[in-house]
Design brief:
Length: 410
């Protein structure tokens, strides 16, 4: 059998690439080993509604996800989160609101009262000294931790950036490349002359003042729309397929040779792959009506009595969830590894982090994911997290670029 393109992997990256290739006139076959499409972007049934089993938001940088949603007819359902602040649960067990103007915890105004409150005056003064350093200082930093420590010091690196990066990227800042964390941070540093100036510029450019967005009804709706549109465009979608030997010009699937330009849309597990457990609770807790910790908390390493590394108050963050769960609240806690009794642990941690009794747990759901991939590094075109970095914004934009490049190749 011959086709113009074969996409191997039916997660978001594979679906985006297949759709874009088909829009360009290519005959496309999409092969997925599992019996469902979307990878981790799938619905989570709970309390009579559907939330997201993994990513419940996307980074607005670059605009790729919003543009895709618009193309798929979902533009009217793009939403931004509540303006309520997220909080930081510090290593000493106290909690403070996260600074208002920041990117991954890097403050745009280091001497602002909320920064001083979070890391102390000494740490804030060291961060302020960033403006006195030449723009070249830290320019060649490989990791986000190196960049922040060099320009703003340990107070910001350990007290603000580390908890947020653990919560958002499931890794330590020393293991997160600068350009993966924020692709434009380095160029804005060069242009503005300081890290704080770069952060202010990035923050100002985020749509509606928000660095993240979502979809009413859940991000999993993006997958449903992608599958429907790919089918409309004639993409031959096959699930439950065993894919064998793979070369740039063809694959063997269920014993059948398929010729065409191959796009790999899955990645090699990293050597240090981690397990991440997400516990979602729907609770009867009137005390949460006052959103005591805003949209949720990031937890500093070593915080006493808490195992979770982050908590999201979903019904405070997203108006559509609050509307779908009247008189109830949804919270989601994330853990490294596998808690022994995840629902019991999450209930205990939620009370400690939110500072209130959560009341009766009306429903719960536990999902565990493997995190950490790397590119194959061979001659086959590759899309997905291993090649693009973490997050829907990076994955979608990269898949669009790779597909466009293939369409231009003779």
């Amino acid at each position: 059998m011959a086709s113009d393109a074969i996409v191997v992997g039916g997660g978001v990256a594979g679906l985006v690439a297949a759709r874009r290739l088909a829009l360009g006139g290519a005959r496309v076959v999409l092969l997925e080993r599992a019996d469902h499409l979307g990878g981790q972007v799938v619905p989570l049934p709970i309390a009579g509604i559907e939330l997201d089993a993994a990513a419940e938001s996307y980074a607005t940088r670059g605009g790729a996800v919003a543009a895709l949603a618009q193309e798929l007819g979902l533009g009217a359902d793009l939403v931004v989160p509540s303006r309520a602040s997220a909080w930081l649960h510090r290593a000493d067990g106290t909690a403070v609101p996260l600074p208002a103007t920041g990117v991954l915890g890097i403050p745009g105004h280091p001497l602002a009262a909320d920064v001083v409150r979070a890391i102390g005056r000494r740490g804030a003064l060291r961060a302020w000294a960033d403006r006195l350093l030449p723009a070249r200082v830290g320019r060649d930093a490989a990791s986000l931790d190196d960049l922040v420590r060099t320009r703003m010091g340990a107070g910001v690196a350990e007290g603000l950036v580390a908890p947020i990066v653990r919560g958002v990227h499931s890794k330590e800042p020393r293991d997160l490349p600068v350009d993966t964390a924020s692709p434009r941070l380095r160029s804005e540093l060069a242009a503005r002359g300081s890290l704080a100036g770069a952060v202010r510029a990035l923050h100002a450019q985020a749509p509606a003042g928000s660095q993240v967005g979502g979809l009413r009804g859940g991000m999993h709706r993006l997958v449903t729309a992608l599958v429907q549109d790919a089918g409309r465009l004639g993409v031959d979608i096959r699930t439950g397929v065993d894919v064998g030997p793979m070369r740039p010009d063809g694959v063997v699937a269920d014993g059948e040779r398929i010729d065409g330009a191959v796009v790999r849309a899955f990645a090699e597990p990293a050597r240090d792959q981690r397990r991440l457990t997400l516990v979602t609770l729907v609770v009867d807790a009137p005390a949460l009506d006052a959103v005591p910790r805003g949209t949720g908390l990031l937890v500093a390493a070593g915080a006493p009595g808490v195992r979770a590394r982050a908590l999201t108050h979903l019904s405070a963050k997203w108006a559509w969830i609050a509307e779908a769960l009247p008189d109830r609240h949804a919270v989601r806690l994330s853990y490294d590894g596998d808690p022994r009794d995840p629902v019991e642990q999450a209930t205990k941690d939620a009370e400690a982090l939110l500072g209130v009794r959560v009341g009766a747990v009306l429903d719960s759901a536990v999902r565990t994911w493997a995190r950490g991939v790397r590119p194959y590094g061979d001659d086959v075109a590759e899309v997905g997290e291993g090649a693009s970095g973490t997050g829907l914004a990076a994955v979608v934009a990269h898949a669009e670029r790779i597909a466009a490049g293939l369409l231009e190749t003779p």
